[in-house]
Design a protein that fits this description.
Elements: E1 2-5, E2 16-22, H1 26-38, E3 42-48, H2 51-61, E4 65-68, H3 77-87, E5 93-97, H4 102-110, E6 115-118, H5 125-155, E7 159-164, E8 170-173, H6 176-181, H7 202-215, E9 217-220, E10 225-226, E11 232-233, E12 235-244, E13 247-256, H8 258-291, H9 299-313, H10 318-329, H11 340-343, H12 351-358, H13 360-368, H14 377-383, H15 404-419, H16 430-439, H17 447-458, H18 478-483
Parallel strand pairs: 2-3, 2-4, 4-5, 5-6
Antiparallel strand pairs: 1-3, 7-8, 7-13, 9-12, 10-11, 12-13
Helix pairs in contact: 2-3, 9-10, 9-15, 9-17, 10-14, 10-15, 13-14, 14-15, 15-16
Protein backbone atom coordinates (compact mmCIF):
# COMPACT_ATOMS: atom_id res chain seq x y z
CA UNK A 1 0.00 0.00 0.00
CA UNK A 2 1.21 3.47 -0.82
CA UNK A 3 -0.28 6.94 -0.49
CA UNK A 4 0.71 10.22 -2.21
CA UNK A 5 0.33 13.50 -0.35
CA UNK A 6 1.27 16.96 -1.66
CA UNK A 7 0.82 20.46 -0.25
CA UNK A 8 -2.60 22.00 -0.79
CA UNK A 9 -1.62 25.56 0.04
CA UNK A 10 -0.25 27.21 -3.15
CA UNK A 11 0.98 30.18 -1.16
CA UNK A 12 3.00 28.11 1.28
CA UNK A 13 6.76 27.86 1.66
CA UNK A 14 8.82 27.54 -1.48
CA UNK A 15 11.20 24.80 -0.32
CA UNK A 16 10.04 21.56 -1.94
CA UNK A 17 11.08 18.02 -1.17
CA UNK A 18 10.15 14.66 -2.70
CA UNK A 19 9.96 12.29 0.27
CA UNK A 20 9.40 8.56 0.62
CA UNK A 21 7.74 7.71 3.97
CA UNK A 22 7.83 4.20 5.41
CA UNK A 23 4.86 4.45 7.80
CA UNK A 24 1.79 2.32 8.52
CA UNK A 25 -0.25 4.93 10.41
CA UNK A 26 -2.02 7.54 8.19
CA UNK A 27 -2.53 9.85 11.16
CA UNK A 28 1.21 9.85 11.87
CA UNK A 29 1.80 10.77 8.23
CA UNK A 30 -0.47 13.79 8.67
CA UNK A 31 1.47 14.86 11.75
CA UNK A 32 4.73 14.51 9.85
CA UNK A 33 3.39 16.56 6.91
CA UNK A 34 2.16 19.30 9.29
CA UNK A 35 5.53 19.39 11.08
CA UNK A 36 7.38 19.69 7.77
CA UNK A 37 5.15 22.52 6.55
CA UNK A 38 5.57 24.44 9.79
CA UNK A 39 9.35 24.15 9.31
CA UNK A 40 9.19 25.61 5.81
CA UNK A 41 9.15 22.42 3.78
CA UNK A 42 6.60 21.69 1.05
CA UNK A 43 6.64 17.89 0.91
CA UNK A 44 5.52 15.78 -2.01
CA UNK A 45 5.23 12.62 0.05
CA UNK A 46 4.64 8.99 -0.86
CA UNK A 47 3.75 6.62 1.99
CA UNK A 48 4.49 2.89 1.82
CA UNK A 49 4.25 0.13 4.42
CA UNK A 50 5.47 -3.03 2.71
CA UNK A 51 8.79 -4.11 1.24
CA UNK A 52 7.31 -4.54 -2.24
CA UNK A 53 5.78 -1.05 -2.30
CA UNK A 54 8.98 0.39 -0.86
CA UNK A 55 11.10 -1.16 -3.60
CA UNK A 56 8.67 0.02 -6.27
CA UNK A 57 8.53 3.56 -4.91
CA UNK A 58 12.30 3.70 -4.57
CA UNK A 59 12.70 2.92 -8.26
CA UNK A 60 9.90 5.18 -9.50
CA UNK A 61 10.31 8.17 -7.23
CA UNK A 62 14.08 8.51 -6.59
CA UNK A 63 13.23 10.67 -3.55
CA UNK A 64 15.23 13.51 -2.02
CA UNK A 65 15.10 11.67 1.33
CA UNK A 66 13.59 8.59 2.98
CA UNK A 67 11.77 8.81 6.33
CA UNK A 68 11.12 5.48 8.03
CA UNK A 69 9.38 4.29 11.17
CA UNK A 70 11.28 1.73 13.21
CA UNK A 71 8.62 -0.99 13.27
CA UNK A 72 5.70 -1.80 10.96
CA UNK A 73 3.35 -4.80 10.90
CA UNK A 74 4.67 -6.10 7.56
CA UNK A 75 8.00 -4.29 7.28
CA UNK A 76 10.70 -2.63 9.37
CA UNK A 77 12.87 0.45 9.27
CA UNK A 78 16.05 -1.60 9.53
CA UNK A 79 15.05 -3.66 6.49
CA UNK A 80 14.19 -0.46 4.59
CA UNK A 81 17.60 0.95 5.47
CA UNK A 82 19.39 -2.14 4.17
CA UNK A 83 17.47 -2.01 0.89
CA UNK A 84 18.06 1.72 0.52
CA UNK A 85 21.81 1.37 1.10
CA UNK A 86 21.90 -1.22 -1.66
CA UNK A 87 19.52 0.29 -4.17
CA UNK A 88 19.86 4.04 -3.60
CA UNK A 89 22.89 4.76 -1.40
CA UNK A 90 22.93 8.41 -2.45
CA UNK A 91 19.48 9.09 -0.88
CA UNK A 92 19.65 10.26 2.78
CA UNK A 93 17.75 7.99 5.18
CA UNK A 94 16.21 9.24 8.47
CA UNK A 95 14.39 7.30 11.16
CA UNK A 96 11.17 8.94 12.42
CA UNK A 97 9.75 6.76 15.17
CA UNK A 98 8.06 6.74 18.51
CA UNK A 99 9.30 3.29 19.48
CA UNK A 100 12.96 3.39 18.59
CA UNK A 101 15.43 3.40 21.44
CA UNK A 102 18.43 5.67 21.44
CA UNK A 103 20.73 2.66 21.22
CA UNK A 104 18.82 1.34 18.24
CA UNK A 105 18.93 4.79 16.63
CA UNK A 106 22.71 4.95 17.05
CA UNK A 107 22.98 1.49 15.52
CA UNK A 108 20.94 2.78 12.58
CA UNK A 109 23.37 5.66 12.15
CA UNK A 110 26.26 3.21 12.08
CA UNK A 111 24.46 1.24 9.37
CA UNK A 112 24.03 4.27 7.12
CA UNK A 113 21.16 6.41 8.36
CA UNK A 114 21.98 10.12 8.52
CA UNK A 115 19.71 11.15 11.41
CA UNK A 116 16.78 10.15 13.63
CA UNK A 117 13.86 12.11 15.09
CA UNK A 118 11.46 10.95 17.78
CA UNK A 119 7.77 11.38 16.95
CA UNK A 120 7.19 13.34 20.12
CA UNK A 121 9.82 15.83 18.89
CA UNK A 122 8.56 16.43 15.34
CA UNK A 123 9.42 20.15 15.63
CA UNK A 124 13.00 18.99 14.88
CA UNK A 125 11.98 17.11 11.75
CA UNK A 126 11.96 19.97 9.24
CA UNK A 127 15.50 21.13 9.97
CA UNK A 128 16.72 17.52 10.03
CA UNK A 129 15.17 16.80 6.62
CA UNK A 130 16.47 20.01 5.04
CA UNK A 131 19.93 19.38 6.44
CA UNK A 132 19.91 15.79 5.21
CA UNK A 133 18.78 16.80 1.72
CA UNK A 134 21.39 19.55 1.49
CA UNK A 135 24.18 17.27 2.68
CA UNK A 136 22.97 14.58 0.29
CA UNK A 137 23.10 16.97 -2.63
CA UNK A 138 26.57 18.08 -1.62
CA UNK A 139 27.70 14.45 -1.45
CA UNK A 140 26.22 13.84 -4.88
CA UNK A 141 27.93 16.92 -6.29
CA UNK A 142 31.21 15.84 -4.73
CA UNK A 143 30.84 12.30 -6.04
CA UNK A 144 29.99 13.65 -9.49
CA UNK A 145 32.99 15.95 -9.39
CA UNK A 146 35.25 13.11 -8.27
CA UNK A 147 33.93 10.89 -11.04
CA UNK A 148 34.52 13.57 -13.65
CA UNK A 149 38.02 14.10 -12.28
CA UNK A 150 38.66 10.35 -12.32
CA UNK A 151 37.58 10.14 -15.95
CA UNK A 152 39.70 13.14 -16.88
CA UNK A 153 42.62 11.71 -14.94
CA UNK A 154 42.39 8.30 -16.56
CA UNK A 155 41.44 9.38 -20.08
CA UNK A 156 43.72 12.43 -20.35
CA UNK A 157 46.27 12.49 -23.16
CA UNK A 158 48.67 14.24 -20.82
CA UNK A 159 50.75 12.45 -18.25
CA UNK A 160 49.45 13.39 -14.79
CA UNK A 161 51.32 12.88 -11.53
CA UNK A 162 49.98 13.70 -8.05
CA UNK A 163 52.71 14.38 -5.49
CA UNK A 164 52.95 15.05 -1.80
CA UNK A 165 53.62 18.78 -1.58
CA UNK A 166 56.24 18.53 1.15
CA UNK A 167 58.30 15.57 -0.02
CA UNK A 168 57.70 15.43 -3.76
CA UNK A 169 56.77 11.75 -3.55
CA UNK A 170 54.38 10.49 -6.20
CA UNK A 171 51.06 9.18 -4.89
CA UNK A 172 49.11 8.79 -8.16
CA UNK A 173 49.98 8.43 -11.85
CA UNK A 174 47.49 8.21 -14.69
CA UNK A 175 47.58 5.55 -17.44
CA UNK A 176 48.96 7.88 -20.14
CA UNK A 177 52.16 8.25 -18.15
CA UNK A 178 53.14 4.81 -19.47
CA UNK A 179 53.04 6.02 -23.06
CA UNK A 180 54.95 9.14 -22.14
CA UNK A 181 57.62 7.71 -19.82
CA UNK A 182 57.65 4.05 -20.84
CA UNK A 183 56.96 2.70 -17.36
CA UNK A 184 53.92 1.38 -15.52
CA UNK A 185 52.11 3.97 -13.38
CA UNK A 186 52.42 1.78 -10.28
CA UNK A 187 56.20 1.72 -10.70
CA UNK A 188 56.28 5.47 -10.00
CA UNK A 189 54.30 5.40 -6.77
CA UNK A 190 56.50 6.32 -3.81
CA UNK A 191 59.30 7.79 -5.91
CA UNK A 192 60.28 11.41 -5.71
CA UNK A 193 59.79 13.37 -8.91
CA UNK A 194 63.50 13.78 -9.61
CA UNK A 195 64.02 10.03 -9.27
CA UNK A 196 62.22 9.45 -12.57
CA UNK A 197 65.00 8.30 -14.88
CA UNK A 198 63.34 9.85 -17.95
CA UNK A 199 63.92 13.35 -16.57
CA UNK A 200 67.52 14.11 -17.52
CA UNK A 201 68.21 17.37 -15.69
CA UNK A 202 67.72 16.30 -12.07
CA UNK A 203 69.15 19.48 -10.54
CA UNK A 204 66.80 21.67 -12.52
CA UNK A 205 63.81 19.51 -11.58
CA UNK A 206 64.70 19.89 -7.89
CA UNK A 207 65.17 23.65 -8.32
CA UNK A 208 61.79 24.02 -10.03
CA UNK A 209 60.11 21.87 -7.36
CA UNK A 210 61.47 24.21 -4.69
CA UNK A 211 60.17 27.21 -6.60
CA UNK A 212 56.80 25.50 -6.99
CA UNK A 213 56.56 25.04 -3.22
CA UNK A 214 57.18 28.78 -2.82
CA UNK A 215 54.96 30.16 -5.60
CA UNK A 216 52.23 27.51 -5.98
CA UNK A 217 52.53 27.35 -9.81
CA UNK A 218 55.32 26.60 -12.26
CA UNK A 219 55.24 26.07 -16.03
CA UNK A 220 58.28 25.24 -18.13
CA UNK A 221 59.25 23.60 -21.42
CA UNK A 222 63.02 23.34 -21.19
CA UNK A 223 63.57 19.99 -19.48
CA UNK A 224 64.16 17.18 -22.03
CA UNK A 225 62.47 13.83 -21.53
CA UNK A 226 64.20 10.62 -22.52
CA UNK A 227 61.77 8.34 -24.33
CA UNK A 228 61.80 4.55 -24.01
CA UNK A 229 63.37 4.22 -27.48
CA UNK A 230 66.26 6.52 -26.49
CA UNK A 231 65.00 9.59 -28.32
CA UNK A 232 64.46 12.95 -26.64
CA UNK A 233 60.97 14.35 -26.35
CA UNK A 234 60.00 17.99 -26.05
CA UNK A 235 57.56 18.21 -23.16
CA UNK A 236 55.68 20.93 -21.34
CA UNK A 237 55.36 20.77 -17.56
CA UNK A 238 52.52 22.64 -15.85
CA UNK A 239 52.28 22.15 -12.11
CA UNK A 240 50.29 23.68 -9.30
CA UNK A 241 49.72 23.24 -5.58
CA UNK A 242 46.23 22.77 -4.15
CA UNK A 243 44.51 21.40 -1.06
CA UNK A 244 42.74 18.08 -0.69
CA UNK A 245 41.08 18.36 2.66
CA UNK A 246 43.82 19.54 4.98
CA UNK A 247 46.62 18.14 2.84
CA UNK A 248 48.59 20.02 0.23
CA UNK A 249 49.25 18.13 -2.99
CA UNK A 250 50.96 18.96 -6.25
CA UNK A 251 49.60 18.05 -9.67
CA UNK A 252 52.07 17.76 -12.54
CA UNK A 253 50.68 17.75 -16.07
CA UNK A 254 53.26 16.54 -18.59
CA UNK A 255 52.37 17.17 -22.24
CA UNK A 256 54.28 15.90 -25.24
CA UNK A 257 54.87 18.96 -27.44
CA UNK A 258 57.32 17.31 -29.83
CA UNK A 259 54.97 17.70 -32.79
CA UNK A 260 54.34 21.35 -31.95
CA UNK A 261 58.05 22.05 -31.61
CA UNK A 262 58.76 20.30 -34.91
CA UNK A 263 56.07 22.43 -36.56
CA UNK A 264 57.56 25.56 -35.00
CA UNK A 265 61.02 24.65 -36.27
CA UNK A 266 59.59 23.99 -39.71
CA UNK A 267 57.79 27.33 -39.63
CA UNK A 268 60.97 29.12 -38.53
CA UNK A 269 62.86 27.52 -41.40
CA UNK A 270 60.13 28.55 -43.82
CA UNK A 271 60.09 32.10 -42.47
CA UNK A 272 63.87 32.33 -42.72
CA UNK A 273 63.79 31.02 -46.28
CA UNK A 274 61.02 33.51 -47.10
CA UNK A 275 63.02 36.32 -45.53
CA UNK A 276 66.09 35.32 -47.53
CA UNK A 277 63.98 35.30 -50.69
CA UNK A 278 62.69 38.78 -49.87
CA UNK A 279 66.23 39.95 -49.18
CA UNK A 280 67.37 38.51 -52.51
CA UNK A 281 64.48 40.29 -54.21
CA UNK A 282 65.33 43.55 -52.47
CA UNK A 283 69.01 43.18 -53.39
CA UNK A 284 68.02 42.64 -57.02
CA UNK A 285 65.79 45.73 -56.96
CA UNK A 286 68.59 47.76 -55.36
CA UNK A 287 71.05 46.55 -57.98
CA UNK A 288 68.63 47.36 -60.80
CA UNK A 289 67.99 50.84 -59.43
CA UNK A 290 71.63 51.74 -58.91
CA UNK A 291 72.72 50.39 -62.28
CA UNK A 292 71.09 53.42 -63.87
CA UNK A 293 72.59 55.95 -61.43
CA UNK A 294 76.22 55.44 -60.49
CA UNK A 295 76.26 58.59 -58.34
CA UNK A 296 73.79 57.10 -55.88
CA UNK A 297 75.49 53.71 -55.65
CA UNK A 298 75.19 52.64 -52.04
CA UNK A 299 72.84 55.51 -51.10
CA UNK A 300 69.90 53.26 -50.26
CA UNK A 301 72.12 50.78 -48.43
CA UNK A 302 73.69 53.54 -46.33
CA UNK A 303 70.24 54.94 -45.50
CA UNK A 304 69.20 51.40 -44.53
CA UNK A 305 72.18 51.05 -42.20
CA UNK A 306 71.46 54.36 -40.50
CA UNK A 307 67.70 53.69 -40.31
CA UNK A 308 68.35 50.25 -38.80
CA UNK A 309 70.67 51.75 -36.17
CA UNK A 310 68.04 54.39 -35.34
CA UNK A 311 65.26 51.81 -35.06
CA UNK A 312 67.35 49.68 -32.70
CA UNK A 313 68.27 52.69 -30.57
CA UNK A 314 64.61 53.69 -30.39
CA UNK A 315 63.79 50.30 -28.87
CA UNK A 316 61.74 48.86 -31.72
CA UNK A 317 61.43 45.09 -31.84
CA UNK A 318 63.40 42.95 -34.26
CA UNK A 319 60.50 42.56 -36.68
CA UNK A 320 60.02 46.34 -36.93
CA UNK A 321 63.75 46.90 -37.32
CA UNK A 322 63.92 44.43 -40.21
CA UNK A 323 60.94 46.08 -41.91
CA UNK A 324 62.43 49.57 -41.66
CA UNK A 325 65.74 48.28 -43.02
CA UNK A 326 64.01 46.62 -45.99
CA UNK A 327 61.98 49.79 -46.63
CA UNK A 328 65.13 51.91 -46.63
CA UNK A 329 66.87 49.59 -49.09
CA UNK A 330 64.15 50.23 -51.69
CA UNK A 331 63.01 53.73 -50.76
CA UNK A 332 64.31 55.19 -54.07
CA UNK A 333 63.44 52.21 -56.26
CA UNK A 334 61.00 54.37 -58.19
CA UNK A 335 63.86 56.35 -59.73
CA UNK A 336 63.92 53.78 -62.52
CA UNK A 337 61.05 55.83 -64.01
CA UNK A 338 63.07 59.07 -64.09
CA UNK A 339 65.09 59.88 -67.23
CA UNK A 340 68.77 59.16 -66.63
CA UNK A 341 69.65 62.67 -67.83
CA UNK A 342 67.86 64.10 -64.80
CA UNK A 343 69.34 61.60 -62.35
CA UNK A 344 72.94 62.36 -63.38
CA UNK A 345 72.49 66.03 -64.30
CA UNK A 346 75.59 67.88 -62.94
CA UNK A 347 73.77 71.20 -62.51
CA UNK A 348 70.82 72.27 -60.40
CA UNK A 349 67.45 70.89 -61.52
CA UNK A 350 64.76 73.15 -62.94
CA UNK A 351 61.37 73.26 -61.24
CA UNK A 352 59.79 71.14 -63.94
CA UNK A 353 62.54 68.55 -63.50
CA UNK A 354 62.08 68.61 -59.74
CA UNK A 355 58.37 67.89 -60.16
CA UNK A 356 59.22 64.97 -62.45
CA UNK A 357 61.81 63.66 -60.00
CA UNK A 358 59.24 63.70 -57.22
CA UNK A 359 57.12 61.17 -59.12
CA UNK A 360 59.69 58.50 -58.22
CA UNK A 361 57.94 58.02 -54.88
CA UNK A 362 54.63 56.88 -56.38
CA UNK A 363 56.46 54.88 -59.06
CA UNK A 364 58.29 52.99 -56.31
CA UNK A 365 55.07 52.32 -54.42
CA UNK A 366 53.48 50.94 -57.61
CA UNK A 367 56.36 48.47 -57.92
CA UNK A 368 56.29 47.43 -54.25
CA UNK A 369 52.55 47.09 -53.58
CA UNK A 370 52.14 43.74 -55.41
CA UNK A 371 54.98 42.22 -53.37
CA UNK A 372 53.79 40.47 -50.18
CA UNK A 373 56.18 41.89 -47.58
CA UNK A 374 55.75 41.13 -43.89
CA UNK A 375 56.02 44.85 -43.15
CA UNK A 376 54.38 48.07 -44.44
CA UNK A 377 57.24 48.64 -46.89
CA UNK A 378 55.19 50.44 -49.57
CA UNK A 379 53.71 52.79 -46.96
CA UNK A 380 57.15 53.68 -45.54
CA UNK A 381 58.44 54.39 -49.05
CA UNK A 382 55.35 56.49 -49.84
CA UNK A 383 55.88 58.60 -46.70
CA UNK A 384 59.65 59.09 -46.65
CA UNK A 385 59.46 62.57 -48.27
CA UNK A 386 56.53 63.73 -46.13
CA UNK A 387 57.19 66.35 -43.43
CA UNK A 388 55.44 66.95 -40.11
CA UNK A 389 54.16 70.40 -41.11
CA UNK A 390 52.57 69.13 -44.32
CA UNK A 391 55.19 70.64 -46.63
CA UNK A 392 56.39 67.28 -47.92
CA UNK A 393 55.21 65.18 -50.86
CA UNK A 394 53.44 63.39 -52.48
CA UNK A 395 50.38 63.65 -50.17
CA UNK A 396 51.24 66.58 -47.90
CA UNK A 397 50.63 64.50 -44.77
CA UNK A 398 51.07 65.97 -41.29
CA UNK A 399 52.25 64.65 -37.93
CA UNK A 400 51.11 61.18 -36.88
CA UNK A 401 49.49 60.61 -40.28
CA UNK A 402 53.03 59.86 -41.45
CA UNK A 403 53.92 56.28 -40.51
CA UNK A 404 56.82 55.60 -38.15
CA UNK A 405 58.88 54.00 -40.89
CA UNK A 406 58.40 57.07 -43.07
CA UNK A 407 59.41 59.40 -40.24
CA UNK A 408 62.61 57.46 -39.55
CA UNK A 409 63.49 57.24 -43.25
CA UNK A 410 62.94 61.00 -43.67
CA UNK A 411 65.71 61.74 -41.17
CA UNK A 412 68.08 59.01 -42.35
CA UNK A 413 67.59 59.91 -46.04
CA UNK A 414 68.19 63.61 -45.41
CA UNK A 415 71.38 63.04 -43.41
CA UNK A 416 72.85 60.56 -45.89
CA UNK A 417 71.93 62.71 -48.92
CA UNK A 418 73.60 65.84 -47.49
CA UNK A 419 76.65 63.96 -46.18
CA UNK A 420 77.56 62.37 -49.53
CA UNK A 421 78.24 63.72 -53.02
CA UNK A 422 75.51 64.31 -55.59
CA UNK A 423 75.83 64.85 -59.35
CA UNK A 424 74.99 68.53 -59.01
CA UNK A 425 76.94 69.32 -55.83
CA UNK A 426 79.64 68.15 -53.49
CA UNK A 427 78.73 66.76 -50.08
CA UNK A 428 77.81 69.45 -47.58
CA UNK A 429 79.30 67.37 -44.77
CA UNK A 430 77.96 65.36 -41.91
CA UNK A 431 77.75 68.21 -39.40
CA UNK A 432 75.77 70.35 -41.84
CA UNK A 433 73.41 67.41 -42.36
CA UNK A 434 72.93 66.91 -38.63
CA UNK A 435 72.38 70.64 -38.11
CA UNK A 436 69.70 70.60 -40.81
CA UNK A 437 67.61 67.84 -39.21
CA UNK A 438 68.23 69.38 -35.79
CA UNK A 439 66.84 72.71 -37.02
CA UNK A 440 63.79 70.91 -38.43
CA UNK A 441 63.14 68.92 -35.27
CA UNK A 442 59.43 68.99 -34.47
CA UNK A 443 58.51 71.09 -37.51
CA UNK A 444 59.76 68.94 -40.39
CA UNK A 445 61.19 65.86 -38.74
CA UNK A 446 60.02 63.55 -35.97
CA UNK A 447 61.64 64.67 -32.67
CA UNK A 448 62.37 61.14 -31.47
CA UNK A 449 63.95 60.19 -34.80
CA UNK A 450 66.08 63.36 -34.84
CA UNK A 451 67.21 62.91 -31.22
CA UNK A 452 68.15 59.30 -31.92
CA UNK A 453 70.08 60.18 -35.04
CA UNK A 454 72.03 62.96 -33.26
CA UNK A 455 72.79 60.64 -30.35
CA UNK A 456 74.15 57.95 -32.66
CA UNK A 457 76.57 60.31 -34.42
CA UNK A 458 77.53 62.68 -31.61
CA UNK A 459 77.56 60.37 -28.58
CA UNK A 460 77.90 56.80 -29.80
CA UNK A 461 80.37 57.30 -32.63
CA UNK A 462 78.18 55.95 -35.41
CA UNK A 463 79.54 56.39 -38.95
CA UNK A 464 77.87 55.89 -42.30
CA UNK A 465 79.27 52.64 -43.70
CA UNK A 466 81.71 52.45 -46.57
CA UNK A 467 80.83 50.44 -49.67
CA UNK A 468 82.66 47.32 -48.51
CA UNK A 469 80.44 46.95 -45.45
CA UNK A 470 77.05 48.04 -46.75
CA UNK A 471 74.03 45.95 -45.79
CA UNK A 472 73.34 43.24 -48.41
CA UNK A 473 76.45 44.33 -50.34
CA UNK A 474 77.35 40.66 -50.76
CA UNK A 475 74.14 40.24 -52.76
CA UNK A 476 74.98 43.08 -55.21
CA UNK A 477 76.86 42.47 -58.50
CA UNK A 478 80.63 42.66 -58.02
CA UNK A 479 81.13 45.27 -60.71
CA UNK A 480 78.64 47.48 -58.91
CA UNK A 481 80.56 47.15 -55.63
CA UNK A 482 83.67 48.33 -57.37
CA UNK A 483 81.96 51.55 -58.46
CA UNK A 484 82.12 53.08 -54.96
CA UNK A 485 80.10 55.95 -53.53
Amino acid sequence: MSTMTSPSDPGGPAVGANLLLVEDAPQDMELIVDALRRAGVQPVLRRVETEASFRSALTELRPDAILADWTLPQFSGTRALAIARQEAPEVPFLFVSGTISEAAALEGLRNGAVDYVFKHQLEKLGSAVLRAIQEGRERLALADSEERYRLLFEMAKDGILILEADSGRITQANPFIQELLGCQPQDLIGKQLWEISSLLDKDRVISLFTRLQETGYVRYEDIPLLAEDGSLKDVEFASNVYHVGRRQVIQYNIRDISARRAAERQMQTYQQETLCSLQDMVAALVSLSETRDSYTAGHQARVADLARAMAVEMGLDQHQVEGICISALVHDIGKFSIPIEILIKPTALKQQEIELLRTHVQAGVDVLLPIHFHWPVAESVLHHHERLDGSGYPQGLRGEAICLGGRILAVADTVEAMATHRPYRFAKGLEAALSTVEAGRGSLYDPAAVDTCLKLFRQKGYQLPSVDRLPYVDRLPQEKQAGGA
